[in-house]
Design goal:
Length: 268
Amino acid sequence: MANTTRIVTLLSDFGLRDHYVAAMKGVLLNLNPGLTLVDISHQIPPQDVFTGAFTLWQAYGCFPAGTIHVAVVDPGVGTARRAIILSAGAQWFVAPDNGILSYIFDREESWAAYEITADHYFRKPVSSTFHGRDVFAPVAGWLSHDIPADKFGPQLTDPVLLKLPVLTRVKDALIQAAVLAIDGFGNIVTNLKPEDLPVYSAPGTRSCRILAAQKEIAGFYRTFSEGKPGEIFVVPGSSGYLEIVMRQGSAAAALNLAPGALIGVILN
């Protein structure tokens, strides 16, 4: 079996203290020593599928066609939850069917998904607590040799999807938004885009305030340096969404907000 040059990314909630990530990489390289392995993150909060889904979504579009993404945030490991292969956006995804691919399904117009049932591709014996090593890594390794996806199992048309937050305009002057993610700096990524607020899309027409954790935020800037030390304010983030940040501090810690929390926007 010839080596196939391919990029495989890894995302998990395993952290870096234990052997889990290295074991997955060892399985992959045993099956295909020619692989280039890239870590997206292994610091997803434990069992936080929502944050895992957001993190994968933000990263996958930066990779070339043919990349295989292995995403393992798997609180249902060992249960009847399905394992899937997804082809979308000219890339491949191998993951538990628990919603971690929700943003991919939501953003890509066309896709094909397959339930992984062909256990002869698994590492044996299969642990009931470590499918990252025994199921997902070996499937990705075999997939990197261009084995057709339908060889791993039947087509799947009803993937598990998370309920992704959407903006709700309650009134002309009130918008309900939500927190999508908290980054390592404590910046709060919202599902508001700059075009949603006149302060960015049409400066000088309407002012606004954000209500988050019973605190009003009225500073809307373009860069971090415009805020004062300790000030909580809003900037357009690299993800394309508005972020609530604190200069020289953690906005998430100050406001005690987590992914999924609701926030409000009052348009004046």
